[in-house]
Amino acid sequence: MKGWIKALSVPLITALVLTGCGSGASTKKADRGEKKTSLQKSGNDTVLRVSGAEEDTELLKQVMENFKKDNPDCPYTLEQVTISESNARDTILGDINNAPDVFTFADDQLRSMIASGILGEVTDESALSENVKAAVEAATVSGKTYAYPLTADNGYFLYYNKAFFTEEDVATLDRLLAKAASKNKKVTMDMSSGWYLYAFYGNTGLKLQLAEDGITNVCDWNSRKNKITGMDVARAMAAVGRNAGFKSGGDDVLTAGAKDGSVVAGVSGVWQANVLKEIWGDKLGAVKLPTYTVAGKQVQMASFAGYKMVGVNHFSEKEEWGKKLAAYMTNQSNQELRFKLRGQGPSNTKASQSAEVKASPAIQAVLAQSEYASLQRVGGNFWGPATELGNLCASGSAPTQKTLDKLVKQITASVAD
Predict the structure, then answer these.
(1) Parallel, antiparallel, or unpaired: how do β-strands 217-219 and 144-145 relate?
(2) Which of 252, 314, 329, 394 sits 20 to 30 Å CA-CA off 234?
(3) Quick check: is 191 in a domain?
(4) CB 78 within 8 A of CB 70
């Protein structure tokens, strides 16, 4: 085991990301053929450690038990470790010596994982070919795939109470808000979150993406030259913020309002499906996001698309069996089991065509919205300024051009600035 690998820390990982997230990111790991026996600290070389979210505890238990039954020649005891997919990168790369052998994580963490060297290339074409193309592309950098697709549902769309809205009402944000206001009700969306704020910009021709270094943002949300300018969008968002039928807020606001009857529609994801089903029952509806008015035009609201995936520790002596387990965790039957127990949408094409999945309004809505979605590929400098912009617009006040220029300058600043 190379000494520099054993000493990896968050600052060094950051340096690797800065230098390694371009087209050469996959070559940042030295001596790929060498086995790294000293990395694993499970206390027992016969233990293969698997991490997943706390909510997946029972699901993973079943999957691992079935894997052992179906693979009696597996020489390892399987041990479950709790690590949330949302912060898997920070947890795993922050203590890489104790990293699990197999782990689930969100797709926006892929490049950092690759840059650290903890992910090797996945060459199991039979496992990859069973998934929708977009999910495989989310796990791919520079033509090489580094993880096994697990879900294809980490996006957002519109939930609504059918007792208040028709299908025509929910097609446009103008009509949706007007109908809610006429009933003294609210439609919610978390404008303070850059993740949701993207919905207003994504289909306007304005840009938000990573630069070639893989960490700096390219953003022209302050553009004066685009057919729909940055100020056009900001003014449109502020008009939404002022609307009597709108309330800015996250899932807690949506849930509480649905319970007390003050909220009749809201933007969220599949994780809210069961909660809202309990409240609204058969009146629960879910559709793609509506169009909204900007610069006198109706523009389809966009969204970020997200995928969960399974990675295998390339530093581990147990990598071969880790890959077998990862392929098993993400196969058709286990993605169907994940939907049954957790309500998460499959990336496996056959699993996504099951009668149960087709009967889920939330899954069908996120699939419909996927046509207007983009992968979340933004650097860390985006989130703070996006929150400032969102909060300002949610209050009903559009920023000045000068303020918008300042925020975009912060979004696009280099990490060294």
Answers:
(1) unpaired
(2) 252
(3) yes
(4) no
Structure tokens at 78: 């399987």
- CA–CA distance, 409 with 412 (Å, rounded to integer): 5
CA–CA dist 111, 117 (Å, integer): 10
**Which pair of structure tokens corresponds to residue 133?**
């193309």
CA 260/CA 80 separation, integer angstroms: 39
What CATH number should be reported for the domain holding residue 245? 3.40.190.10
> What are the pLDDT digits (tens) for 328-385?
999 999 999 999 998 899 999 999 999 999 999 999 999 899 999 999 989 989 999 9
* Distance from C-alpha of 186 to C-alpha of 377, rounded to nearest angstrom: 31
The CA angle 242-260-392, to the nearest 5 degrees, is: 25
Q: Which domain does 182 fall in, by range?
A: 157-305+373-411
- Whether residue 117 is found in the same domain as residue 232: no
Residues 252 and 177 in one domain: yes
User: Do the domain assignments include residue 417?
Assistant: no
Tell me how far apart the alpha carbons of residues 44 and 49 are, in angstroms, rounded to a whole number.
10
- pLDDT tens-digit profile of 85-112? 988 999 999 999 999 999 999 999 999 9
Is residue 370 within 8 Å of residue 173, measured between CB atoms? no
Both 70 and 169 in one domain: the answer is no
